[in-house]
Amino acid sequence: MGRVEERPNPEKLTWWWILVGVLIVLAYAARASGGKPADDVLYQWGTAIAAALLYAIVLGLLLLIARGGSVRDLFALRPPRSWQRALGWAGVVFALVLAIGAALDPLLHAGEEQGLTPSGWDSDHAAAFAANVVVVAGIAPIVEELTYRGLGFSLLRPYGVASAIIGVGIAFGLAHGLIEALPILSLFGIGLAWLRERTDSVYPAILLHAAFNGFPLAASVAF
Question: Can you give the pTM of this predicted structure?
Answer without folding.
Answer: 0.92
